[in-house]
Amino acid sequence: MARAAKTKRPAFRLAPTQSIALVFALIILVGSVLLSLPIASQNGISCGFQPAMFTATSATCVTGLVLFDTWSQWSAFGQVVILCMIEIGGLGFMAMASLVVFALKRKVGLRQRMLMAQAWSVEDMEGVVKLQKWVVFGSLSVQFVGALILFLRFLPNYGFSKAVWWGIFHAVSAFCNAGFDVTGSIAPGANMIVFNQDPVVCLTLMALIVVGGLGFFVWQEVITLHSFRKFSVYTKLVLLASAFLLVFGGVLFCVLEWDNPGTIGWMDTPHKILNGFFQSVTVRTAGFTSVDQAALTDGSKALSVVLMLVGGASGSTAGGMKVVTFLVLVLFLISRARGRNRVTVFKRNVPQEKIMDAATIAGLMIGLAFLGAIVIVATSPVGFVDALFETVSALATVGLTAGATTSLSLVAQWMIILFMYFGRVGILTLSLGFLMGDKAENRFCYADTNLLIG
Question: How far is 51 from 48, CA to CA, in rounded Å?
């Protein structure tokens, strides 16, 4: 009787979290090589590997911090490479890979389902393929509508070919919360300042940023359930907190900048309000700028840092610690201040481990932001406030700068590269680690000790 052949087990297999981190790194590496080619630069001369890696990391991690103006530095080839990295980084490589699978009508395997679940922070694989279809086709549809509106707006002034490219590029960049622009032919480095008097452009970009930043779970429930009462607690929290932060930030930016001639002080009232609310939207991970960030008052810079840290929703194109993470910490502080041991919201109890997870992410981001600001101040001719603005912008994958990016030392640039990668990939894999971790109690524990707190 013939022996059954033994199946060899692979000696080494990456965990889903490791796969996500590795693939993002490979995408950045490939993008860096492509952008360092002479053909990627407008002048036909290679920009060098380190600047190319800085740009590739910023694009793949949908951040938007740049060492050069995108239009002035990069050729059509370079701009296409950047756009592809933004799309892959914003939607996730699994979403892009699944697009090919859906197009070829292939069956989605178990490992692919696992990766999809991990990439979107889903605790189980039930319905994950359906969710992925929502992500892919829903995202492309929203981007198409945004690109069409922008194309029609740009067409009369800039011609057909430029209107097409600008419409596509800025729609993708806004939805993916990347903040890259190609308006440098008008004014290099000005970003959306050249359109801060144009409500169609500003409102379209704001809508794309908000939709992309709400997260795919949220707008799936909004579209399918149609009733706030039927929404999950998570969706309710995201919608309410996002609306509050948008209005609160918009009003406060208007108040702080109303008479500042360097930002909105010279505008009429409707445009002051428009740009105040644009700042409130874009600062929560989008990175487009309609006013000079370096000219903001210190109060506005501080508010920007807070909103950048908060970011958007989980499972979205946005970065930051995430809005529900921030809200859980606020609710925890309120509960403890009132002498309560439990955190409840919408008649539901928030598990203690979720509070600990939120505190871990927030503590890491805040600690790294201050540490990075100290490194920048020590190595570059940048003040502490602007340095903190820069590090938070990188960690939260926002892409706004108060003018510090081009003044960074080589050491600081490499640190910002690592911060952008951690902000997009590290926070994601850390969150997945919470979901995948062993929830069993420790096999042993030490005796309690008494500490003085506060």
Answer: 6
Residue 38 structure tokens: 């002479």
Does residue 214 contact residue 312 with C-beta atoms inside 8 Å? Answer: yes
Which residues, in sequence order, are CB contacts of 89 under 8 Å at separation 6+? Answer: 24, 27, 59, 60, 61, 62, 176, 178, 424
**Cβ pair 350, 397 in contact under 8 A:** no
Distance CA(221)–CA(206), nearest Å, equals: 21
Half-sphere exposure of 98 (CA within 13 A, CB side): 25
Greatest C-alpha distance within the chain: 91
Most confident of the ranges 110-119, 186-195, 319-328, 367-376: 367-376
Q: Which two tokens stand for residue 299?
A: 């109060």
373 in Cβ contact with 387 (< 8 Å): yes
What six digits make up the tokens of 165? 């490219």
Q: Write phi, then psi, for 41 (nearest 5 degrees).
A: -100, 150
Q: Which pLDDT score, from 0 to 100, does residue 440 have?
A: 47
Q: Rounded distance, CA 400 to CA 305, Å?
A: 10
| Structure-block tokens of residue 259 | 């008479």
Tokens in use for 122?
């889903």
Report long-range pairs for 166-169 (Cβ below 8 Å, ≥24 apart): 168/83, 169/79, 169/83
C-alpha–C-alpha distance, residues 448 and 446, integer Å: 6
Nearest 5 degrees, angle CA 47-CA 52-CA 55?
125
Give Cα separations from 183 to 177, 288, 352, 380, 452 (angstroms).
17, 12, 48, 29, 57
3-state secondary structure of 29: helix
Question: pTM for this structure?
Answer: 0.85
Q: What is the mean pLDDT of the chain?
A: 83
> What are 216's two structure tokens?
């795919």
Ranges of each domain in the chain: 16-435
Find where tokens 């795919």 sit: 216
Measured distance CA(103)–CA(191) in Å, rounded: 36
In whole angstroms, give the CA distance from residue 401 to residue 416: 12
pLDDT at 257: 94
Tokens of 231: 């929404």
